[in-house]
Design a protein that fits this description.
Keywords: Membrane, Transmembrane, Transmembrane helix. InterPro entries: YdcZ (IPR006750). This is DMT family transporter. The chain has 148 residues and is mostly helical. It has one domain. α1 packs across α3, α3 packs antiparallel against α4 and α4 packs antiparallel against α5. The relative contact order is 0.10. The chain is built from five helices and no strands.
Length: 148
């Protein structure tokens, strides 16, 4: 199930960027569309979380390190940037560049064991990384003019 869900989410991400870009064109711009996306997403997550009947101990929040709250900043940066860039780059180019960046970042974070057990880089991972970067370049084709 995990592999299928991850694949399905991957299919939805470019659609999210296109929907948000469309909302931005129809309303008050990409930043507003990103804010609307986060607001709707927050409401959905709140209902889902409450439906799960969580045990909530407010004192536990005081023990969380400051940096643990920064994931939302990264999420907001991604959604706002994707909303702004998808009309300029296209969905395929945007997602290819994001995936290539995610893979490079993930390999580095794994190698150094940032926030989880260390998983050293090996030749197979480097080969996979290079294949993804090559694939992204073939889709994005930065050597061609935008007119194609």
């Amino acid at each position: 199930m995990g592999l299928g869900l991850a694949f399905f989410i991957g299919i939805l991400l470019p659609l999210q960027a296109l929907i948000n870009a469309s909302l931005g064109r129809q309303t008050f711009g990409p930043l507003f569309a990103s804010l609307a996306s986060f607001t709707v997403g927050t409401l959905v997550l709140l209902v889902w979380w409450l439906a799960a009947r969580p045990v909530f101990v407010p004192a536990a929040l005081a023990k969380v390190p400051w940096w643990a709250w920064t994931g939302g900043v990264i999420g907001a940066l991604f959604v706002a940037s994707a909303t702004l860039l998808v009309p300029r780059l296209g969905a395929a180019a945007l997602i290819c560049l994001v995936v290539a960046g995610q893979l490079i970042g993930s390999v580095m974070l794994d190698h150094f064991g940032v926030l989880h057990a260390r998983q050293p880089v090996d030749a197979t991972r480097i080969a996979g990384l290079l294949l993804v970067v090559a694939g992204a370049l073939l889709v994005v084709r930065p050597w061609q003019s935008p007119a194609g």
